[in-house]
Specification:
By secondary structure, the chain is mainly α. The chain has helices at residues 17-29, 42-45, 52-68, 86-95, 100-104, 107-113, 121-135, 149-166, 211-219, 236-249, 253-260, 265-291, 294-323; strands at 4-9, 35-40, 77-80, 141-144, 174-177. It folds into two domains: 4-182 and 294-323, HUPs (Rossmann fold, 3-Layer(aba) Sandwich), CATH 3.40.50; 211-288, Tyrosyl-Transfer RNA Synthetase. The protein contains 13 helices and five strands. Helix 10 (236-249) crosses helix 11 and helix 10 (236-249) packs across helix 12 (265-291). The longest helix is centred in the last third of the chain and has 30 residues, at 294-323. The chain is globular. Bound molecules: tryptophanyl-5'AMP.
């Protein structure tokens, strides 16, 4: 079976090192193996209110960031979700193959809807669209951070249900969650994951943060009252910083721990800040270069959407036929 990798990211001006370490870095690394498809999921983004101007800018900036972080449009397909209408159509089919009970068990909805006055059906239903994103490409592997695993499992269930009703049609995708980096935590509350929607900007290192801002955030990251730089469940802040270090330095947690042995918390944090600044620099430089020509960027995305649609459309046509839609 041919390897097909699909993953998506919501357009945001607040992409952070969790998005990079938990997902995008793995996407960039895996591009020489199989067919790789990456999507900026703007249709998912409108499950919460979006200013049109900001959405447009964030879509371009997220796509540019993916290219800057190493997604190569010669090797992989990169496109924007709304450029391929098959996703919306497939999302409806997915909807009709998920029970209310199953959808109600999606934990992210509870977090995302909490405290909101107006919660639209799309926010509840979002995993159906995500299932379509994945299964329309006969995806075998879905590289994601830990928080998206439940959604990929739902995509498997949709594929299975459809196959049992209409005959073998969809492959069952596997979630691929890195052993480390899959859950980068907030710098302010290391019991919570680093999140784009966290109103406290000190909680996340954003990919576009200037070096002095990165340093300031990491130097003031919450740790504990101890003195030993060691990963342990009692030291979630130190563990998080060690995992950020080991991911950026591409070493194991144990190696990072060894390198930091005997350092004060202050010196340790300073080393973590050094590596984050060093690794973000080339991404930020390349990003600026790509954004110098938005027309070229749009051309790349349109080209990607065309290639994506060639694949998804074949699958959707098969699906329509099996369901009994006339054409
Ligand atoms: P999104 O845009 O929230 O996040 C993009 C990727 O970043 C990962 N991530 C993290 N990893 C480690 N630590 C963190 N603190 C952290 N925060 C986010 C996410 O797990 C994700 O892999 N629903 C998806 C987008 C999507 C998708 C898809 C993904 C839509 N369709 C199809 C895969 C396949 C989302 O909102 O990701």
């Amino acid at each position: 079976m041919a390897k097909v990798v699909f993953s998506g990211i919501q357009p945001s001006g607040n992409l952070h090192i969790g998005n990079y370490l938990g997902a995008v870095r793995h996407w960039a690394k895996g591009q020489d193996d199989g067919l790789n498809i990456f999507c900026v999921v703007d249709m998912h983004a409108i499950t919460v209110e979006q200013d049109p101007k900001v959405l447009r800018e964030n879509t371009l900036s997220t796509a540019a960031f993916l290219l800057a972080a190493g997604i190569d449009q010669e090797k992989s397909i990169l496109f924007v979700q709304s450029m391929n209408a098959d996703h919306a159509n497939g999302g409806w089919i997915a909807n009709c193959n998920i029970s209310m009970g199953q959808m109600s068990r999606m934990t992210q909805f509870k977090d995302k809807s909490e405290g909101k006055q107006f919660v639209n059906v799309g926010l509840f239903d979002y995993p159906a669209l995500m299932a379509a994103d994945i299964i329309l490409y006969s995806t075998t592997h879905v590289p994601i951070g830990d928080d998206q695993k439940q959604h990929v499992e739902l995509a498997r269930d949709v594929a299975e249900r459809f196959n049992s009703r209409y005959g073998e049609t969809f492959l069952l995708p596997e979630p691929v969650v890195g052993e480390t980096g899959a859950r980068i935590m907030s710098l302010v509350d290391p019991e919570k994951k680093m999140s784009k929607s966290d109103p406290n900007t000190s909680a996340s290192v954003f990919l576009f943060d200037e070096p002095d801002v990165v340093r300031k955030k990491i130097m003031s990251a919450v740790t504990d009252s101890g003195a030993e730089v060691k990963a342990s469940p009692e030291k979630p802040g130190i563990t998080n910083l060690l995992s950020i270090h080991s991911e950026f330095a591409e070493t194991s947690m144990e190696d990072s721990e060894r390198q930091m042995q005997g350092l004060s918390y202050g010196d340790f944090k300073s080393k973590v800040a050094d590596i984050v600044v060093e690794k973000l620099k080339p991404i930020q430089e390349k990003y600026a270069q790509i954004r110098g020509d938005d027309n070229k960027l749009l051309e790349t995305l349109r080209g990607g959407a065309k290639k994506a649609q060639e694949i998804s459309h074949k699958k959707l046509t098969e699906v329509y036929d099996k369901i009994g839609f006339v054409s």
